[in-house]
Design goal:
Blueprint: H1 2-34, H2 37-40, H3 44-49, E1 58-68, E2 71-80, H4 84-94, E3 97-104, E4 107-114, E5 117-125, E6 131-138, E7 158-165, E8 172-179, H5 183-196, E9 200-205, E10 208-213, E11 216-224, E12 229-237
């Protein structure tokens, strides 16, 4: 009996120690979560490249990798209790070297450099006073060569952003260009070049246009900026959303 009691006491002590270790581990995990997206980035080098996100931003998890302007980036999702432009303004103040802000039809994009590495944040409204965000930070390494500019892009356009995810038929390409033309002039030039390259208009898509060529779909929107205008283009397989 005494041996059985001794064994039970030993097991109880061992479980008590294990429980204490588990509690300590849980506390450490919670502290890491409370530290926000920077603490949970998959790559330490990417963590160093990230700007300080707005106060109270909730990390929604790692979302894989993508290539932006030929650079490999770690991607995370987050949510913050402020509208997209308010969150973008906060990022612009904390964003390191000369961040720039680009309004989009459904939100805003902020892009900059931190310690010589590129970062990008895209924000969309997720309620009256909330935003859903995607944060991408450069991992490092030698940038890949940029792809050739599509034939339908008007001459004189300057590529600001080239983001690619997936491969083969599932590849999604998002590009942003700046142009000296005013928005109406750029829109007319873009339509003429798209038709000349074989793209056919599909249907109205909110503030933009949809085009089809074979099994690919292209969504375009032209926005006014000072000076000139900007062009956002997203190309994907026809069945992708």
């Amino acid at each position: 009996m005494s041996r059985a009691v001794s064994v039970l006491r030993h097991m109880a002590h061992r479980h008590s120690v294990q429980d204490a270790r588990h509690r300590l581990l849980r506390r450490r995990c919670l502290r890491s979560l409370a530290a926000g997206p920077l603490a949970l980035l998959a790559s330490p080098r990417a963590a160093r490249a990230m700007p300080k996100l707005p106060s109270g931003a909730a990390d929604l998890g790692w979302n894989g990798r993508m290539r932006i302007n030929g650079r490999d980036m770690d991607v995370r999702l987050f949510r913050v209790s402020m509208p997209p432009f308010a969150a973008a303004a906060a990022l612009s103040q904390e964003g390191g070297e000369r961040p720039w802000l680009l309004p989009l039809p459904d939100g805003v994009m902020v892009m900059g450099m931190q310690q010589g590495r590129m970062w990008l944040v895209q924000l969309r409204a997720a309620g009256p006073q909330a935003s859903q965000g995607m944060a991408a930070a450069e991992i490092g390494g030698r940038p890949a060569p940029r792809a050739a500019m599509p034939a339908w892009v008007p001459a004189g356009a300057v590529l600001l952003l080239d983001a690619q995810t997936g491969e083969g038929g599932s590849r999604v390409v998002q590009q942003i260009y700046a142009h000296a033309f005013a928005a109406p002039v750029l829109s007319r030039s873009l339509e003429a070049r798209l038709r000349g390259a074989g793209w056919h208009p599909d249907e109205a898509a909110g503030a933009g246009r949809q085009w089809r060529l074979g099994g690919r779909r292209l969504w375009t929107v032209v926005v006014a900026r000072s000076p000139g205008s900007g062009l956002l283009a997203v190309e994907a397989a026809a069945g992708q959303r």
